[in-house]
Amino acid sequence: MIRRWAGDLALGMRLALGGGGARTALVRLTLTAVGVGLGVAVLLTATAVPNLLAARDDRASARFPDVAQAVEGVDPIHLVKRNDEFRGRGLQGYLVQATGSRPPAAPGVDRLPGLGEMVVSPALADLLRSSDGELLRSRFSARVIGTIGAAGLTGPNELFFYFGSDSVAQQPDAVSVSRFGSASSHRPLSSLELLLVVVGATTCLVPVFVFVVTSTRLAAAARDRRLAALRLVGADRGQVHRIAAGEALLGAFAGLLAGLALFQLIRVLVPRITVDAFRGGLFGTDVVPDWRLGVPALLALPVLACVAAVFALRLVVIEPLGVERRGTRTRRKLAWRLFPAVTGGVLLLTGLGGDGAGNPSVIAGVVLVLAAVPLVLPWVVERVAGLLGGGSPAWLLAVRRLQLDSATAARLVSGVAVVLAGSIALQGVYDRTEFERPAPQDIRVYASYYAMSVDDGEAFTAALHALPGLGAAPVRTSAMIETASGERNSVAVEDCPGLRARTGIADCHDGDVYAATAYRGYVPAPGDRLWFSELRRIARAPVPQWTVPAVHRVPMSGEDAPEVVVTPGALATASGVGLTVSATLPDADPDQVERVRNVVGWNGSVSSLGTGRDSTSALITRVLSVGSVLVLLFVAGSLLVAAWEQLRERRRSLAALAANGVGRGVLARSLVWQLAIPVAVAVLVAVPAGLALDWLVLRFVVHRPMTADPASIALLTATAIAAVLFVTALTLPALWRTTNLENLREE
After folding, report:
1. How far is Cα 622 from Cα 446, in angstroms, rounded to an integer?
2. Does 493 have pLDDT greater than 70?
3. Which residue has the higher pLDDT, 199 or 284?
4. Which of 142, 132, 78, 190 is nearest to 429 (CA)?
5. What is the pTM of this model?
6. Which of 36-45, 66-75, 307-316 tops mean pLDDT?
7. What is the mean pLDDT of residues 598-613?
8. What is the pLDDT of residues 523-558, one digit of tens each?
9. What stretches of 19-139 show up as alpha helix (H) in DSSP?
10. pLDDT tens string 51-66
11. C-alpha angle 312/316/321, rounded to 5°?
């Protein structure tokens, strides 16, 4: 029995390869392989995402400094991390100060830089050499001694550096490091972020399976004629079904090979992404499918193709003398088509409260609701086509075609409907995520500078005020003091004119310390011997660095009045001073922000407030955005393949219409209507389905209210319609060739 089944499958493969003429068979096999291959590439890429993110996280953890462990035989280094940016691109790295000749090894770096040296990523090196990096070169004036290898970067386009400096040890956030590398630790996804992943991944993958099913029905009429011929020479119904499965199996296998080749091409092209996506780009070597997910998915595709091919014969009677289709005589039933949607809705409605977005029942519910869209669509298209009446010749041709074969039209646009429904639900979850993000602050740029003396702080202030438009920017200077017993307090450092303006103190003497009368925290007393806390932590200074002079309790008024103020003269006797000079700057153009960063240099940092995004949420959004574009292209490509095949199957009837005087313009408009009507129906099905799914997952899974955005829904709908119309336009040249009178002679 096994041998007989294998022989039937092999016969089906041979017929798929050579049946109906070698050229026709090759075109048919190519179309099927392209459809399945696109699906395979999308599946492999999707299953590679976990490994991709894990590899990036592992490399990021490998370069993270380990501050808890000393290593014998290694001279520790002082290290400060700098999270910066340049014109919107993330820029980060470490300032390094060696303490000996045996520094620790950093991943991807031959040796850490010394004073006046730096090691940069290849992308940063290219940027510094380009004209776009002119404003950045003043910050990276050291000599480049090497580039960072892939082991030390999260992506090929990442801007990362190690910069040698002699002032690292004095900076407040410096750490002593003897080795690099730490265990990966990740913040768990929030319920909304996890819901973004679930809905987005489902939206990307369901259309793949939809088209795999559709692609097995390409050239169905020619296949049915071949099967009828086999019935004529003695094949029974079981053999016919197995032979049909063999034909589909060959296309599925060819699609697997095509998909593997396309996936390898994707791996080659991925590192060439030069936009600031995925936080520095992607290494092609990281795009490795998770075989625990990929192998079952790939094995499921041939099985799905065979099942779909056999299932398609349920309404076709293949007899020795011909083929009879019963599809137009039996009205489709709605009840079983609604079963997946009802089941998915029940899974989402019941027993999944709290942060249940990662629950398998939620994933199954989302999949079932989206999978119900292509099941319900043929029923709706059939009913709508039956209600349509007369009109122009092009309209009549299109309507009659839909009434005769509404299933084919519904299959053509089912992928568009799934993507549209999923995108609407995804947009709703994304809007809710953005709504719950804290509102942007008015302050856009915050600059912080670590000064080692009062004069150093004043020089920074003067340089900042010398920049165009920043002459009146408010600047504040503060210091953290600490007693021998560990008491700590932050004090403001300000001269008498500024103190009078802020607090209303009339009698101010440079060299004194002032504290608000109502302040009940720690206030230094005259004669106290103190340390500057951050410097003490780094240098472990045994001798107090500052002896407190006269201290006065005074009333301080004003909205931003400090609690303890030290005048600059009071620090004249200090042996070491650690000050933080901060400035809140108005919104500025990108070049102005870069000039501020150049003034701050490596002794501080500049951050943009109110514009930052959580990196996890940003990464998810970027991945889903790129995935949505790829899936839309996939759906458009699959629609184009299916439309071309439909024209091939109908070439004789179209040529007959042209021979009887029907103009090509009428046929072209008829083709447009044949896709426009199902697309309109698909929109009517997909929009309510997407809104319903959005409401279910937000209301019952993460307990958030639904906020529909009509503008976003309209944009998504318009994009889907535009994609279909564009594909229709691409099929018109094929229509001109199809209506050639020579097609009347083809068998």
Report:
1. 26
2. yes
3. 284
4. 190
5. 0.69
6. 66-75
7. 71
8. 888 888 887 776 555 555 566 778 888 888 888 766
9. 22-62, 122-129, 134-137
10. 887 888 888 888 988 8
11. 140
CA dihedral 348, 353, 355, 359 (to 10 degrees): -40
Residue in 87, 157, 37, 121 with CA at minimum distance from that of residue 588: 87
Number of Cβ within a 10 Å radius of residue 188: 10
Residue 321 has pLDDT above 60, yes or no: no
Cα dihedral across residues 737, 742, 744, 747: positive or negative = negative
22-24-30 Cα angle (round to 5): 100
* Of the candidates 554, 600, 576, 551, the residue with the CA atom closest to the CA atom of residue 481: 576
Please tell me the distance from the alpha carbon of residue 593 to that of residue 599, in angstroms, as a whole number.
10
For the record, the structure tokens of 410 come out as 């519904």
How many other β-carbons are positioned within 10 Å of the β-carbon of residue 8? Answer: 21
Residue 687 · residue 420 · CB < 8 Å? yes
Nearest Cα residue to 208 out of 294, 303, 310, 301? 301
CB half-sphere exposure, 280, CA atoms < 13 A: 24
Q: Are 666 and 393 in contact (CB under 8 A)?
A: yes
Region 661-682: mean pLDDT is 82
Amino acid 322: pLDDT:
53
Is the separation of the CB atoms in 513 and 565 below 8 Å? yes
In the chain, how long is the greatest CA-to-CA distance? 115
The DSSP line for 37-65 is HHHHHHHHHHHHHHHHHHHHHHHHHHTSE
Yes or no: say if 243 and 12 are a contact pair by the CB < 8 Å rule: yes
Please spell the DSSP secondary structure of 594-661, one letter per residue. HHHHHHHTTSEEEEESSS---HHHHHHHHHHHHHHHHHHHHHHHHHHHHHHHHHHHTHHHHHHHHHTT
How many angstroms separate the CA atoms of 21 and 17, rounded?
9
- Locate 4 and state its tokens: 């007989």
Reference 580, options 666, 657, 682, 476; nearest CA is: 476
Q: What is the pLDDT of residue 361?
A: 77
State whether the Cα torsion 411-412-413-419 is positive or negative: positive
Spatial distance between the Cα atoms of 115 and 441, rounded to a whole number of angstroms: 38
Both tokens of residue 522? 């720690």
For residue 441, is pLDDT > 60? no
